[in-house]
Amino acid sequence: MTTSIARPPVLVVIQLAGGLDFLNTVIPFQSGIVRDARPTVAVPAEETLPLNNELAWHPAVAPLKQLYDDGKVAVIQGAGWEHQGGPGADRSHFRATDIWHTCTPDKISTEGWLGKLTREFDPQSQNPVTAVNFGLGLPRALAAPGVTVTSVDSLDRFGLMTEIELEQERAKDLDSFKRMYTPAVGTAMVQEYLAQTGLSVLQSAEILADAPEQYASEVEYGSSPIAQALRDVVRVHTAGLGARIFYTLQRGYDTHSGQNDQLPVLLTQLSEAIRDFIQDLRNHNASEEVTILVFTEFGRRIRDNGSGTDHGSGGGAYLIGDGVRGGLYGEYPSLDPSDWLYGEDLSHTIDFRSIYSTVLDQWLGVDPTAIVGGSFEQIHPYREPIGVG
Questions:
Q1: 372 and 353 in contact (C-beta within 8 Å)?
Q2: DSSP string computed for 202-247
Q3: Side by side, which strands form the sheet with 56-57?
Q4: Least CB-packed of 116, 205, 232, 389 within 10 Å?
Q5: Please, what are the domains in the chain?
């Protein structure tokens, strides 16, 4: 079966940095075990937004629920990884994120999965906007030796910066990357890595300069960083510059305390931004070629800590778009205390590399084996997949 989209498929990746509480996003609202384990943060059943007889959305994600009801959201339950033959659970933000970014639970890798994908799309790095990050720094997922990517804090400001300002921005991004990864892999390796890894600046600024002027929209995005980043994705995508991969993140999900105040704000901003993004793409006749992948580095522990939740495992991921066949995928992690990982975490039920393999193969038409480091069973969340699945 072949896809009906007329333009090359595009992937938009949203990282929810800090560890989204899956139990409080797709909620087993009928479970007494969850209510008893979470006397502080459990959402009252009557406030949730049911999606079936057992599960419900957090009330803050009403716009996402509408997309789900329309069949445009695939909820992938229990995402995690196998580590040295057993279930993986690394509660370090840095290491857990690194695993999701590089697909290597058992070692430190020098190549991000999206960096390898960028090389697949543009082997000679001829187009510096094949992959574009909206935000500060160079995401590990996009970094790979010999691969050039573009990192943009603000699209409006980027096109107006002087050559000196652009070089300073590049230096700041690379320094941020160096400070983050030197403790893990050592100074020599990071220096060698950065010498081979490019953040495009001058050429990218020239290419992207006219994108804002070409864009017009009736959609009024919110003022949150995630909303503005997704608006920038539409502006670049609809300019027809050959971008195939977009990356951005939303911070703030490390809710050890004050979760009842923080999480609703974050989920509202995220779900409204995604709703507006999809509508904007539709208005530009560009929604059929775009898939959104939303992921977070880990879930939270089953029991609350009296104010929030601590680092856990067994989280979730989401595929969103007009090409998606919505619904529930994978198995919700067991809530039976005898099945809790380490006696306090949700166990994972699907390896995240299965999700990546699905997107690479079925949506982007790329052999996933070398990118994810092996063969992983795929799910089937697309109406008309490009690949053979």
A1: yes
A2: HHHHHHHTTHHHH---S----SSHHHHHHHHHHHHHTTT----EEE
A3: 26-27, 56-57, 49-50
A4: 389
A5: 10-314+321-338+356-372 (3.40.720)
**Count of alpha carbons within 13 Å of 48, Cβ hemisphere only?**
23
What are 151-193's pLDDT values in tens digits?
Answer: 888 787 665 566 667 677 767 766 777 776 676 656 765 676 6
Nearest to 382 by CA among 362, 355, 361: 362
pLDDT of residue 54: 97
Give the model confidence (pLDDT) of 224-272 as tens digits.
999 999 999 999 999 999 999 999 999 999 999 999 999 999 999 999 9
- Rounded CA separation 146/125 (Å): 8
**What pTM, to 2 d.p., does this model score?**
0.91
Inter-residue contact 237 to 243 (CB < 8 Å): yes
Helical (H) or strand (E) element with 115:
helix 113-121
**Is-contact 78 332, C-beta < 8 A?**
yes
124: alpha, beta or left? (left if phi > 0; alpha if psi -120 to 50): alpha
Q: What is the largest CA-CA distance in the chain?
A: 60
Categorize the per-residue pLDDT at 387 as very low, low, confident or very high, splitting at 50, 70 and 90.
low
Please tell me whether residue 64 adopts helix, strand or coil conformation.
helix
Burial class (CB in 10 A: 0-12, 13-18, 19+), 81: buried
